[in-house]
Amino acid sequence: MVLLGGILCAVGWVINAQATTLNGYYLGMIIAGIGAGGVYGTCVGNALKWFPDRRGMATGMAIMGFGGGAMVGAPLAAALMGHFASPTSVGVWQSFLVMAAIYFVFMIGGALSYRVPPTGWKPEGWTAPAKKASNAMITHRHVHVNVAWKTPQFRLVWLVLCLNVSAGIGILGMASPLLQEVFAGKLLGTDQTFGQLDAGQLASIAAIAAGFTGLLSLFNIGGRFFWASFSDYLGRKNTYFVFFALGFALYALIPNLGHLGNVALFVAAFCIILSMYGGGFATVPAYLADLFGTQMVGAIHGRLLTAWAAAGVLGPVLVNYLREYQLSIGVERAAAYDITLYILAGLLVLGFLCNLMVRPVADKYFMTDAELAAEQALGHDKGADSSTVLEWKAAPGSKPLALAAWLAVGIPLAWGVWVTLQKTAVLFH
Fold first, then answer.
1. CA dist., res. 47 & res. 40, Å (int)
2. Dist. CA 134–CA 51, nearest whole Å
3. 89 DSSP 8-state letter
4. Which residue in 419, 309, 428 sits closest to 71, CA to CA?
5. What is the pTM of this model?
6. Residue 391 phi/psi, 5° resolution?
7. Can you name the residues that pair with 366 across neighbouring β-strands?
8. How far apart are CA 292 and CA 236, in angstroms?
9. Where are the domains positioned within the chain?
10. CA gap 228, 355 in Å, rounded
């Protein structure tokens, strides 16, 4: 699947390079999107199997990489278009081809080194802590993907993710205009309102807001790893309680921070919120593995991502509609977001209640031993017949290769972070 996904991504980008109509671009992005989704879902599901002791950390790392790719791709695309630009071309099609080649090399390289552990694998010498072994919210059995989506737990976790992401993506879209319209001249050291600023001042606060957005993207990416790793200790359900309770307090507090004119606390509140938005997205695969087992968690997670898609529509539409309505009835720009933030806080209350209702999956939904063996046989699972050693550690000779792999990923990501930090610096000037 990873190999196929890498090929589809490259093909999609090549189609975009050759497209001369809007429908051609749609076709290319659909093909590339299918490929990216296949790679993403497969890698996240496999990470859960390789790290039975650190499920949250594993998915946090994988999903941090997924988000971090945009931090690399966006400045890379801009740099390539600048390089290929000419009096007769903006350099788009050449950039598409170069990025297709780069993505193809990286994704195929990853696919060829990709391995799936046998069922029951664990690190050498590791035993599950007694607290986790006796935790009813962490199963050691498996639910089939065709059954999982029919359970009340799936529907509740779907709502948990949808509500968390709706609030997060809604506030992400409003962050830049909110900062500009609420603080306006205060960002430049004056007391002018947004409507009193001239063109040059508007450009200056727009640059500051762009730095603010860059800072939020860093917290979004970092939060994926931090909160998902934190869930290994706190538990998945309790981590979501933190997201909803702390998020509610911050959403409700932001309007007051805006009216007080406290830019530092305002920015800090947004950063924490965006870290939890990323953290909620990264923690949910481990939540699913705890509830439904790891055998088909990748496929289950794929179906759950429809909640993310729904939230991607609900959040921005809700925010934009409420803002336009507030402005249409004469509310000042600086206060037009207050009601919106309170409503987003209400979504988090609903999410808290949904998370509260999540209980262990009932026995009737789990696969029998015979059903599990049949699924493992279809997947050519080497651990199904008990002929494979299920406990080992990495060979010492593999360390140079592992280091090279980390450098291949880490150097581009570090470059993307550096570019983002440069854009963010204007916020602190």
1. 11
2. 19
3. B
4. 419
5. 0.86
6. -140, 120
7. 143
8. 13
9. 1-117+395-423, 138-383
10. 16
Q: Looking up tokens 């938005």, which residue turns up?
A: 277
Instruction: Look at the block and give the residue holding tokens 């603080």.
Output: 183
Two structure tokens written together for 127? 């035993």
What is the CA angle 72-73-77, rounded to 5? 125
Residue 151 token pair = 């359970």
CA triple 131-136-142, angle to 5 deg: 115
Tokens of 98: 């170069």
- pLDDT digit of tens for each residue in the chain (429 aa)? 788 888 998 999 899 888 888 898 899 989 998 888 888 888 888 888 888 888 899 999 888 888 788 888 888 888 888 888 888 888 888 998 999 999 888 888 888 887 888 777 888 877 777 766 677 788 888 999 999 999 999 999 999 999 999 988 888 877 888 888 778 777 777 877 777 777 888 888 888 888 888 888 889 999 999 999 999 999 999 999 999 999 999 999 988 888 788 888 988 999 999 999 999 989 999 999 999 988 888 889 989 989 988 988 888 888 888 878 877 887 777 677 788 888 889 999 999 999 999 999 999 999 888 888 888 777 666 655 555 567 777 778 888 888 888 898 889 888 888 888 888 877 776
- Token code pair at residue 251: 């959403």
Which CATH number does 138-383 carry?
Answer: 1.20.1250.20
- Fill in the amino acid letter for 24: G
Tell me 135's DSSP state: -
Helix axes 152-183, 236-260, angle to 10 degrees: 20
Q: Beta-carbon neighbour count of residue 360 at 10 Å?
A: 13
**Any alpha helices (H) in 184-305, and if so which ranges?**
199-234, 236-260, 263-292, 297-304
Helix, coil or strand: residue 123 = strand
